[in-house]
Design brief:
Elements: H1 13-18, H2 20-23, H3 27-43, H4 50-56, H5 61-72, E1 77-78, E2 84-85, H6 87-121, E3 126-127, E4 136-137, H7 157-160, H8 166-178, H9 192-208
Antiparallel strand pairs: 1-2, 3-4
């Protein structure tokens, strides 16, 4: 699904008024320029056909062509596909997208940190070896089955059958949070809780102890 288009962009009056290209425009040309900026932002580009541009700014084609050739054309760039773009608007769009991605990452990290606190306060989950079961029973804490291969080739079944402690579960949640919720397992875990439990089991299997 394509990302939703932002309905607005930052406008910097000082930069606008100090731009030599704007300073040489008439009031009518400035109105055309602002209209083209708005359309370019919403559509992400403009058609290169002067007749279409004239209709977009509701101006007679001869008057628009004169304004376009005199000052407006130099405010836009021709993209590889022939469409017109505005360099400053593209930079603003990139800034908005980067900020949105950063906020989303922070939200995921905050959710995982909250889950980590909940794991630390929860009762230990019972992890069973593959000889008896392949699911993690945690009274709603982990609600998805753990893949059978997770418990394959366990040298000490008595170690893995001991319940995971809150500290182990919290450790797993911290690792997942540090990855911004990304699962590095193959196959991937069904959700962050299952991934955190799996990390805790792997840590124990590597000799960290119950």
């Amino acid at each position: 699904m394509a990302a939703e288009k932002s309905p607005s962009f930052q406008f910097y009056p000082r930069d606008y008024l100090s731009d030599i290209r704007v300073a040489t425009m008439t009031n009518a040309e400035r109105g055309m320029y602002i209209t083209l900026l708005c359309v370019c932002w919403l559509e992400q580009s403009l058609p290169a056909d002067p007749a279409l541009l004239a209709r977009l700014v509701a101006c007679r084609q001869d008057r628009f062509s004169h304004a376009w050739n005199r000052c407006l054309a130099r405010c836009f760039m021709v993209r590889e596909d022939g469409r017109l773009i505005h360099k400053r608007l593209d930079a603003e769009r990139a800034k908005q997208q980067a900020f949105s991605q950063l906020q989303a990452a922070r939200g995921r990290l905050g959710g995982l940190a909250k889950a980590s606190r909940g794991l630390a306060d929860a009762k230990p989950a019972r992890v069973l070896s593959s000889s008896s079961s392949t699911s993690v029973l945690s009274k709603g804490l982990i609600d998805t089955p753990v893949p059978p291969h997770l418990f394959e080739a366990v040298d000490k079944p008595d170690t893995t059958t001991k319940p995971l402690t809150p500290a182990e579960l919290a450790y797993g949640a911290r690792i997942v949070a540090n990855r911004f919720g990304r699962c590095d397992h193959d196959p991937t875990c069904a959700n962050s809780h299952a991934c955190a439990t799996r990390v805790a089991v792997e840590r124990r299997r590597n000799g960290a102890g119950p």
